[in-house]
Amino acid sequence: MKLSAGLLLASLLLGGVVCSCTNGPGYEGNTGSLPDTENIASLYLDGHDDYIELGEVGLEDPLQLAGEPFTVAAWFRQEADGDPYQRIVDKSDGPLARNGWALAADPETGMIHFYVHDGETGADFASRRDLYGAGAWHFVVVVARSDRLEIWLDGDLDTGSWYESGAHTLPAAAVTGMRIGTWNHSDGREWRGWLDELAVWNTDLSPESIAILHAARGRADLAGTCDVYAQAGNLVGWWRMGSGAGLLADPTAVSWSIEDHASGARTGSFRPVQGPRLDVGEVP
Ligand SMILES: [Ca+2]
Questions:
Q1: Ligand 1 centroid distance, CA of 75 (Å)
Q2: The CATH number of the domain where 16 resides is what?
Q3: Domain containing residue 257
Q4: Which residue from 68, 133, 234, 253 puts its CA 20 to 30 A from 246's CA?
Q5: How many domains does the chain fold into?
C-alpha cells in the first residue's frame, strides 16, 4: 500500500507520523503509523447470527498455512455473556478447528483458545484464566512456531498457556471454509462485540515485531511500504474493518463487505447482509 499524496499531506497537516524508511525495524518511535483517520471504524457482531463470510480457501491459497509457522493477530472488545468459545476467525471444517486453524475467546473465563489441526491430530492451546476482561479493547497475537504455540495479550507473552487437549502441530492442507466471528460447520460460537485489524502472516512474528504492533494500536501500515516490523512480506490477510475517506465523510454510508488489505484480496461478506455493522468511532 502506497501513501497517496493527499494522505501524506493530510498526515503532515494533522501531525501524524509517516515512517521515513530510514529507520530499521524496532526503531522506537517509528511505528509506521498512518494518520489516525485511517483507523476510523471497527466491526460489531451481535453474538446471535452475525458473521463475516470469507468463502472457501483452496489448496493454493496462502491462508492454508499448511505445515508452516504462522501468526494471527486482532484487536477485540468483547461484551459480557454469550458463547464460551466465540470465534475471532476460523479456517476449518469442524470442531477444534479440524483440518485448519482458529482463534477463540471466552468472555466468562477470560481465556483465549488457539486451535491448530493437522488433519489427524490437533491442539487446543488455551491461555490462563482471567487473561483479559470483557468491555475493554485488547490485542491478541497467537503464534505457531516450529516447535511450540504461543498466546500474547496486550504485548505480553502468556506464560500460563497450556494444552487443554492435544499437542503442538501445524495446519493441514485442506480445502475448508473461512469466517470471521463464527465457525464453519454449524450454528454457534458467534462473536459478541467488536473486532478490528485482524491480520494473518505465514511466518512466526518475533517478540520485537509483536511489541511494535501493540504500540501502534491498530494504526500500523501492516502491508508496509516501510516494513517497520520486518515481516510485512509475510502478510497474507489483513481486514481493517472499515477504512478510507468515504466512510469518514459519511459514516452512515452502508457497506456490505470488508476489504482485505493484504495481497490476497479476500473480501468478506456480511451475514446476514444487514446484520454486522462497521462502527465508526469505536476503535482501539
Ligand atoms: Ca478498523
A1: 9
A2: 2.60.120.200
A3: 5-280
A4: 234
A5: 1
Q: What is the pLDDT of residues 68-87, one digit of tens each?
A: 999 999 999 999 999 999 99
pLDDT at 174 over 90: yes
Distance 179 CA to ligand 1 centre (A): 17
**Residue 196 Cα to ligand 1 middle (Å):** 5
pLDDT by residue (tens digit) across 133-152? 999 999 999 999 999 999 99
Which one, of 91, 179, 90, 75, lies nearest residue 132 by Cα?
A: 75
Measured in Å, residue 141 CA sits from the centre of ligand 1 at: 17
